[in-house]
Amino acid sequence: MTPGRGLGGGPGSTDDDAIPVTVLSGSLGAGKTTLVNHLLSNAGDRDIAVLVNDVGAVNVDYDLLSSDDLPAVGVAELSNGCICCELRDDLERAVVQLADGKEFDHLVVEPSGISEPGPVARQFTNGPAAARYRMDAVVTVLDTPQFLGAFAGEGTPERRGPGTGAREGSGADGGGDGDDGDDGVRPLSDLLVEQVEGADVVLLNKADLCDEADLVEAEALVRALRPGVETVRTEHAAVPLDRVFGVDLYEQRDHSDDRSHGAVHDQDDGDGHGHDDGDGHGHDDGDDHGHDHGVHDDADDADDRGDTDHDDHAHAHPDEVYGVASFVYRARRPFHPERLAAYLSALPDAVVRSKGTLHVANADQRLRYSQAGPSVRVEAVGPWVAAMDETDRDLYRANRRDGADWHDEWGDRHTELVVIGVDLDEPAVRERLDACLCTDAELEDRTAVDPTEWFPTGADGDGDPVAVLR
Ligand SMILES: Nc1nc2c(ncn2[C@@H]2O[C@H](COP(=O)(O)OP(=O)(O)OP(=O)(O)O)[C@@H](O)[C@H]2O)c(=O)[nH]1
C-alpha cells in the first residue's frame, strides 16, 4: 500500500494510475442496471469493470450483466447483504482482487437499491481500496415518477423518522404505508432523499413517463436537496458517457462537513440521526444514513466480520432501517399465463420490486420479468434450451455443462424470482404465486393454454419481444 494513503490516509489516491470509480445509487428499480448496460454498450475504447450488489439471495443483476454480449472486462458480484455494511470487507477484497487480476480503466459499482451511496464511496477514499482507486463521482438514478409521487407539492423533501422531525403523510414512499418511524423503521422515501443528497450527478430517469412540467418540478426538488448538482434527463438511462465518466466531481466536493472523510472511525454521538449539516434542512451530514451506531449494538456482528479497522461499528443495516425484506420464489412447474398476468398486474403495494425469470406454460422463450412499483415489464430473451431442436440442445448443453440444473421433465425451464418489499406478507405472496401455477389438468391439456395474449413470444417470433403488463 502506498504510504499515506489507504487506512486513515485521507482522501483517495491521486495518482494518475489510480482507477476512477463511479458509484451508482438509486431506489429499487430506478434503472441502475439499465444504466450499467448502457455504459457497457457505449464504452468505446474504455475497459470497464463492474461490481454488483443485489438485494436477496439471487443476484439477478449479476446474471444480466455477465452475459456474453456485454464487453465488461470484469464483473464481480456480492449478494445477500449490503456492501455499505455487512459486506464491506468483501467489497474491499473484491475490488482489490479485480485490480490485481484484470486491466481496466474504470470501475462501476452498482450497490443494491437500498444502499446509501456515502458509505460505499468512502470505501474508495479510506481503507485498502484507496491505494488503487479514486472516486470519480456518485451518480444517482431517479425513478422520476416515483420521486415526484413521494415528494411533489410538499416543498423541500426532508427525511422523516427518529430524530429527524417526523413529517406526516408524504404520499408514496416506495411501498410501505408511510411509516412514521415510531418503531425505528424509516420510510423508503427517506432513502430517496439521502441518495439525492449524496449525488454528484442525478439522472432524472424514466423521463418518458413524465411531462415537461414534471421534469421541471423534479429538477427543482433535486436542486433543493443538493444545490449545484448536475442533472440529466434520461430515458432508459441513456446518458452521454462524458456526463458521468471522468467528471472528477467527487473529489471536488466540499467534504469539510463529512465527518468520516479521511477518518476511518466515524465519530457519532449515538443517536445516529440528528447531525445537522448546516444546510437548513436538519438532515444528517451524510455518513450515518441507516448506520445508526448504537441503535443496532451488536458486538457479535463486529466479531463475525473479522478484526478490521471498522469493526467497532455496530450498524443498523438499511434493510432493517427501512423495513425491507426479500425472498426468492422458485418453481419448475410452469405458470398459467392468464392467472399469472392477472396477479402480476395487481401485485400488492407491499411488493416494491420483483424481478427474475418466468417459466410460462407453452412459452418457448425464457421470460425476463421486472416490476418496479407500478410498472411491470416482461421481455423474451431467447429460447429455453429445452425448446431447441435436439442437435442444438445437445450442443448447447455440452458446451454449457449445465447438467446440474437440468430437470428430468422441464430441462432448463424454471422460474426464479426475487421479491422485495416493505411489510411484505411472504406466505401470502407465495400462496398467490403457487395458485398461478398450472394444475395437473391444465398440464395434461396443454393445447388449451396460449401464452401469447399476455406474454411476449420473442424477438424471432412475429410478436413483440416485450410486454408491458402494467
Ligand atoms: N419506462 C421506462 N422504464 C425504464 C426506464 N429505465 C429503466 N426502466 C425499466 O425499469 C425496470 C427496472 O430497471 P433496472 O435497471 O433493473 O433497475 P435497477 O435500479 O437496477 O433495479 P434494482 O437493482 O432492483 O434496484 C426495468 O423493467 C427497466 O426496463 C425508463 O427510462 N423508462
Automatic annotation (TrEMBL):
Domain of life per record: Archaea
The answer to whether UniProt assigns keyword tRNA-binding to this entry is: no
Determine if Transcription regulation is one of this entry's keywords: no
Every copy of the CobW C-terminal domain together lies at 324-437
From the UniProt record, list the reaction(s) this protein catalyses: GTP + H2O = GDP + phosphate + H(+)
**Positions of the UniProt region annotated as Disordered:** 150-187, 253-317, 451-470
Q: Name one GO molecular function term.
A: nucleotide binding
Bias regions of kind Gly residues — which residues? Answer: 162-175
* Segments of skewed composition (Basic and acidic residues): 253-297, 305-317
Mind telling me which InterPro entries this protein's record contains? CobW-likC_sf (IPR036627), CobW-like_C (IPR011629), CobW/HypB/UreG_nucleotide-bd (IPR003495), P-loop_NTPase (IPR027417), Zn_Chap_cDPG_Synth (IPR051927)
SMART domains associated with the record: CobW_C (SM00833)
CDD domains recorded = CobW-like (cd03112)
- Identify the keywords attached in UniProt to this record, alphabetized: Chaperone, Hydrolase, Nucleotide-binding
State the similarity comment.
Answer: Belongs to the SIMIBI class G3E GTPase family. ZNG1 subfamily.
Q: What is this protein called?
A: CobW family GTP-binding protein
